[in-house]
Amino acid sequence: MELLVEGVGHAYGELAVLDGIDLAVRPGEILSLIGPSGSGKSTLLGIMGGLLRPSRGRVATRGAAPDGCLNPLTYVFQDFALLPWRSVAGNVALALEHHGLPAAERRARVDDALRRMGLADFAAAFPAQLSGGMRQRVGIARALVVRPAVLLLDEPLSALDAQTRDLLTEEFLAVWRRERTTAVHVTHNLAEALRLADRIAVLSRRPGRIREILAVDVPRDERSEPARAARMAELNQHLWALLRDEARIADRELADREAVRERTAP
Ligand SMILES: Nc1ncnc2c1ncn2[C@@H]1O[C@H](COP(=O)(O)OP(=O)(O)OP(=O)(O)O)[C@@H](O)[C@H]1O
Fold first, then answer.
1. Which of 8, 146, 157, 232 is the S-S candidate for 165 at Cβ 3.0 to 4.6 Å?
2. Residue limits of the ABC transporter domain (predicted)?
3. Whose C-alpha lies nearest to ligand 1, atom 29?
């Protein structure tokens, strides 16, 4: 399924957060969204998923959802958002409630999602008994169980240590290779974006506008190969320079505003 963002702008009261966002997320691609802190990345993801109505513009989907899709636009959150009093299987099954599925199908879907995320032996465990990495596996299994058309990932790995993050990135990619689910992935981590994404959209400082959309033109399987290191470093440097420019301008604007406030203070 394709996700189209057309002329989207958003303000929280007086605070303009997004401006003139046009973006087409292609079927089966992973699009990473990066930008300075406060540039509106999570707001844009919320608008894409229909959690938030934009002040201007619209979001549309095009194309069919996969067979058995119960919830076309499905989130994976940074803080896992698990219910502590429910088992792993109970947390995954939560996403199926209110869909009126027969018990046997519900069980089959839950078992399948747990197996795909390597959680089959942990179905009866509770979140408190699990590491952060395992909890996020449950978060991803809960998203997969509804067979989403588009996955919306809001910094899904940022609460995890570096090693667990690398491991989960590879596991997520293994699942994605089988399903090719369209995904939008918000992150602060350039290495993560460069590992996962087909394209990376860079937002400017607030109000966030699309500064550039960069295609990661190295096949995923080759991104850690020595022969590709130079190109990957080049892409990383380019992204870093864009973010640094935006952060510098934002800092200068803030300093100028403070100076004006001091001059005009009574
Ligand atoms: N519900 C809200 N009400 C008012 N202001 C909000 C609300 N949500 C976010 N903001 C503000 O809007 C701006 C953009 O927030 P948003 O979380 O979308 O940015 P972000 O790029 O995801 O930030 P970060 O990288 O720090 O996570 C920030 O200045 C934030 O404080």
1. 157
2. 3-232
3. 38
